[in-house]
TrEMBL record:
InterPro entries: HypE, PurM-like_C_dom, PurM-like_C_sf, PurM-like_N, PurM-like_N_sf. This is Hydrogenase expression/formation protein HypE. Belongs to the HypE family. GO terms for biological process: protein maturation. It comes from Streptomyces oceani.
Amino acid sequence: MQDAATAWPEVTGWTCPAPLRDTPRIVMGHGGGGALSAELVEHLFAPALAGPALAELTDSSVVTLGGARLAFSTDSYVVRPLFFPGGSIADLAVNGTVNDLAMSGAQAAYLSCGFLLEEGTEVATVARVAEAMGTAARTAGVEIATGDTKVVESGHGDGVYLNTAGIGLVPPGVDIRPKRAVPGDVVIVSGDIGVHGVAVLSVREGLGFDVEVESDCAPLGGLVQAMLEVTPNLHVLRDPTRGGLATALGEVAAAASVGVVVREKALPVPDPVTNACAVLGLDPMYVANEGKLVAFVPREHADAVLAAMRSHPRGASAAVIGECVEAHPGMVVARTGLGGTRVVDVPVGEQLPRIC
């Protein structure tokens, strides 16, 4: 029999840090962009809201209206803090929607904006967010055409939440969606990964690094247009936001039933992100980005597309990181620096909550 000093600890009140897959209630992981988010969409929202435009479950839907092909997208933003190195919730709201449209090959034309304000928030803070949104829209070359404001009681929000929706024209001959990835496609990422998530975490948690990490939040429409000028036959474009590069690759592999092989040494991870992730126990592949894209490009066009990306300011550090293969369909594997391989899973929940 154990004495008090060696007795087993009381565990009945413990909670698991990772949300359980069969939870009957919404948990933070449902908003993390990983497997929990996907299950919520697949098993709850998609059946309830079923329609042909929604069926592809892409970042933006491509619909036909009056003979024109339009990309249409919406997103909501709840980042904390509202302002961080390199950006703000307003920059995320504009660029996030602009980039979702760009992932269908569309140049964004118009946005809507919805402000959800908490009672007691300083008017000066709201003005600062609105001004930042206007600046971001002008930088991205998009017009905010309509909007709405709601106020909730104190304690029922977090200062300012934003929602944006956007529309843009899809050029003729462009068909970009995850199911088009095929074995032989070259996988290209447009620049350094993991920057946004580390930037937000550094200020939210008061972490000090030797070099300040700034968010990569930026509009990608111009970069995508430069790529399309090389060839309209880009198979897949994704912006690896929540869940990071690993989740974006995993979603494409699953949608197209292809295998993806990534070379770890080829991943463009800046030293500050590497160091921060080492301290925090994070994998840069799972950390959010807000100004990067990953492209699946037919091999015959890969060199020219890569050159076009590197000639654009948003893709100066673009790099080939892997390829699509016939083996292990639906799975992403990474070749390590030691010559081995590891499976790159889609996370269940999230490493970093409230990063967008």
